[in-house]
Amino acid sequence: MKEGKEIRKGVGYIPGEVSFYPEVTVEEFLRYSSSFYESVDESYVKKLCNIFSLDTGKRIRELSMGNRKKVAIVQALMHRPKLLILDEPTNGLDPIVQSTFFEILKEEKERGTTIFFSSHILSEVERLCDRVAMIKNGRIVKIESVENLKKEKYKVVRIREGNFEMLEKLPEVVHLKIENSVAEFLFSGTTEKLIEILQRLKPSDFWVEEPSLEEIFMSYYREGEK
């Protein structure tokens, strides 16, 4: 690719596992990294280091896994890339730092940066992403906006009391769980069909909610195993 070098100048990357030169200091490493780019906002680099409480005088080998990941974040963002590729970026970060990191990503997103975010923690994907690609066995099985994905396929239904035996025989009902007189399941079907089934079940109470992204993912994953 002839334009590869130019394209890479506009890309920031955070690997799943961070491995940097162990004997250099954080400051030396960031200075070395900045030499690969035509334009680096030094004030922004300092701001990020302060936000993440990075001791830039420490050697890389002296840093914990979480602090090494912070260095990777600063390195990826230092040149204000047009594209960010993030592979399990929150591994090693404590919850407070994760929250700070997501705020920074939201700012980058608002600035127009495209973010490719790979994570097994689907609540993170749901929190940040507009569109989702689901991958199974190395193949993309679905690409859709998070909003549409949550609307189009399933509803989470909980009913109190009622004819639970009937639920086990309905093809529209999956992932049925029954506990303390409450049945919870994912329902695949039209609203009209759900109303019809609820009338037949005769529950004392019921709740219908949008599923989480994790519940949707598991439904696609299990469908592929059938």
From TrEMBL:
A molecular-function term among this protein's GO annotations: ATP hydrolysis activity
Protein name: ABC transporter related
UniProt domain Daunorubicin resistance ATP-binding protein DrrA1/2-like C-terminal: residue ranges: 146-220
InterPro entries: ABC_transporter-like_ATP-bd, ABC_Transporter_VariousFunc, DrrA1/2-like_C, P-loop_NTPase
SUPFAM superfamilies on file: P-loop containing nucleoside triphosphate hydrolases
Domain ABC transporter, residue spans: 4-91
PANTHER family: ABC TRANSPORTER ATP-BINDING PROTEIN ALBC-RELATED (PTHR42939)
Keywords: ATP-binding, Nucleotide-binding, Transport
